[in-house]
Design a protein that fits this description.
239 residues, Rossmann fold
Length: 239
């Protein structure tokens, strides 16, 4: 993010990656006074810190950011990162399971998350230290259903996931959230989308929008980013 945030994370285990930063720049700008924002399964809090830092510029009066993390080690690191980035005044970390939230967590203006992508046996098996971050035991609907009921009117939900899971996401939104916006994320201009970032809104009846999406790398230059991707990863713009 152009050096604007500093993050401590375990030497081994799940590491902050490009998905973390793309999720952060995809979260819609919240209005001051619209209610708190929450990241589910926030890990060490990198996306949460990036979102809070971005709001310091365009919504300086917004002082309600929440991260929820069930792993005590990662929750402790998230608190360290909040302090390291001088965000104690507006960000708090809750230790708990996002798939079994307490009843008093309600009224959110924004909900965002980067859930485990793969079903057991799908894809390459991750190292044991990364198992919980990559392998899910629950369908994506178990993330969407409880939190759609905890969102205020006009609130948004944003998530990043594998492209082939899009139907499951849309099915879980049905009857709960509308005005769906889909951002495909492609390795390059000739490749199929491997990721999608999806945003939906509470109470919206707007038709689905499929955006042009983002190409991460120039053709035949997988070690470099396109100017647009580079700018987003530096926090210079929004999706």
């Amino acid at each position: 993010m152009g050096g604007r945030i500093r993050i401590r994370q375990p030497a081994k285990g799940y590491r902050v990656n490009i998905d973390t930063l793309l999720l952060a720049v995809a979260v819609p700008a919240a209005r001051t006074g619209a209610g708190p924002l929450i990241e589910l399964g926030c890990g060490v809090g990198a996306a949460l810190v990036a979102v809070a830092k971005a709001h310091e510029t365009h919504a300086p009066g917004l002082r309600q950011f929440v991260g929820m993390e069930r792993d005590p080690l990662y929750a402790a690191l998230a608190r360290e990162n909040v302090a390291l980035n001088r965000l104690d005044h507006c960000v708090r970390i809750i230790e708990g399971d996002a798939l079994a939230p307490p009843e008093d967590l309600r009224g959110f203006a924004q909900v965002f998350f980067n859930p485990p992508y793969d079903a057991p046996g799908e894809g390459r098996a991750p190292a044991p230290a990364r198992q919980a971050a990559y392998i899910t035991q629950r369908p994506i609907a178990d993330w969407i259903k409880p939190w759609s009921n905890r969102m205020g009117a006009g609130a948004s939900m944003t998530l990043i996931h594998r492209a082939h899971r899009l139907k499951e996401i849309l099915d879980a939104f049905e009857g709960r959230l509308g005005g769906v916006e889909i951002f495909p994320i492609r390795p390059n201009a000739r490749a199929k989308a491997r990721r999608v970032i999806v945003t939906a809104w509470k109470g919206s009846r707007a038709p689905l929008q499929l955006h042009a999406g983002l190409d991460l790398h120039p053709l035949d230059q997988a070690e470099k980013y396109t100017p647009r991707a580079e700018a987003l990863l530096r926090g210079e713009g929004r999706l």
